[in-house]
Please model this.
Amino acid sequence: MLGLMAARQAGLDDPARLRRAERTRSRVLSLELNKDRDVERIHGSGINTLDIEPIEGRYMLSGGSDGVIVLYDLENLSRKPSYTCKARFSVGRSHPDVHKFSVETVQWYPHDTGMFTSSSFDKTLKIWDTNTLQPADIFHFEGTVYSHHMSPVATKHCLIAVGTKSPKVQLCDLKSGSSSHILQGHRQEVLAVSWSPRHEYILATGSADGRVKLWDVRSASGCLSTLDQHNGEKSKASSEAANTAHNGRVNGLCYTNDGLHLLTIGTDDRMRLWNSSTGENTLVNYGKVCNESRKGLKFAISCGCNPEFAFVPYGSTIAVYTVFTGELITMLRGHYSTVNCCVFQPHFQELYSGSKDCNILAWIPAPREPVPDDISEKFLPQHLNPAYEDAWSSSDDD
Model:
């Protein structure tokens, strides 16, 4: 914020930018549970994953432990103060192509709402046609699928990165239907994958071996670097494994929106921020970040805010941190059981969260008290201090 103020004062930045940044910041800091907006309850078991399409920010997908996928319309079509976000369709247990086991990740195709993807513990990744609700393609794997991700910026490839029980990262090509391309380097199962929003060929992966690797999928060797929490300063005689990002399983990855930094979470109850270009641990201290999940953890980073915020499932609450200072701003309370996922809606700075309690909750900025344009005379002081009275008089009054 100080940087924005200095740039504005020096005439180097648009004055409106500071106003927009402060407005979005105050909106995020005032997030509260929206008691007037319900999300229709369809899932019969815990909700593992949410995704809001990036085109309009109107439609949201959810995936549950029961294998069910639901699409919600977030728009208030009734125009009433209190309303329910209705489910437009669901791939329920009676659907012939429903996932047999828990759905771990759902994602919209980044460029339009005509397609979405889902992956599951049933060892499959499915590509769905939104209009027909039929799978356009199905990829099968030898082990449980924990996570998948499509690049939000790719124009020259249609690769989906998939993390499975195998230490090999699978790359599925939507154009050819092939999943033969693999990235080798991890020693245990791959729990989280994320493409860079800045470079379409750069991929980050997190594994149960405690390592986070950055890959350039065009390169024959593949791996660009393995992130080291000690920045290369750990003694070689140490019993800790070299080049580990966490002292536990790495089960969460999320890039900042400019792609310059990567946020990681591990079962060592630590969250770390990395410079994605140099691979350096920035040493931001977030304190203890409770993480009891044995699979992938879906957290979110705000978009369009200054500073940026991280929304992290923390038991039955959601912890809100400032990304670059590590400050814990607030804890959002409303769920009755473990929160598994959250997703940020940047158009209105809203947050949605899914939990083991089968509920999806909407968190919106608290409404501000309206300031009247004209102030009634009764609010003005009736008698001014003599020091502020107008002592001048015209010659007519003399």
Q: What stands out?
A: Residues 15-29 form the longest helix (15 residues). The first strand starts at residue 31 and ends at 33. The helical segments are 2-9, 15-29. Residues 79 and 103 are 33 Å apart (CA to CA).
